[in-house]
């Protein structure tokens, strides 16, 4: 538990997530989630452009993470 806490405190914060040396930390609703870095297969940024009648009304950015057990985690 001490190693996990140390990793969290030294992790680099990017917006609402933290990336440590051993784990990836994020919040889903009001729950804290921890994902081991060894379980991550692929991660990328998805940019979604919202349009109304062909006029750009906004952009939304999501991070998508794919894990070893074929799950996709998507958050803003």
Average pLDDT: 91
**SSE pattern, N- to C-terminal:** HEEEEEEE
Strand order of the largest sheet: 1-2-3-4
Task: Please identify the structural class as seen in this structure.
Answer: mainly beta
- Main sheet summary: 4 strands, antiparallel
Question: TL;DR of this structure?
Answer:
The protein is mostly beta strands and 76 residues long.
Describe what this molecule looks like in 3D.
The chain is mainly beta and 76 residues long. 12% of the residues lie in helices and 63% in strands. The chain is built from 1 helix and 7 strands. Strands 1-2-3-4 form a 4-stranded antiparallel sheet, with helices on one face. The longest helix is centred in the first third of the chain and has 9 residues, at 2-10. The chain is elongated and about 55 Å long.
Write the layout of secondary structure elements.
Blueprint: H1 2-10, E1 12-14, E2 17-19, E3 23-28, E4 31-36, E5 40-52, E6 55-67, E7 72-75
Antiparallel strand pairs: 1-2, 2-3, 3-4, 5-6, 6-7
List keywords for this structure.
mainly beta, four-stranded antiparallel beta sheet, three-stranded antiparallel beta sheet, 1 helix
């Amino acid at each position: 538990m001490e190693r996990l806490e140390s990793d969290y405190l030294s992790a680099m914060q990017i917006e609402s997530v933290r990336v440590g040396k051993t784990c990836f930390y994020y919040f889903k609703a009001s729950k804290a989630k921890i994902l081991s870095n060894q379980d991550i297969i692929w991660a990328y940024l998805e940019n979604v452009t919202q349009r109304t009648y062909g006029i750009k009304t906004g952009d939304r950015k999501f991070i998508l993470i794919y894990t070893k057990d074929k799950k996709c985690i998507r958050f803003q």
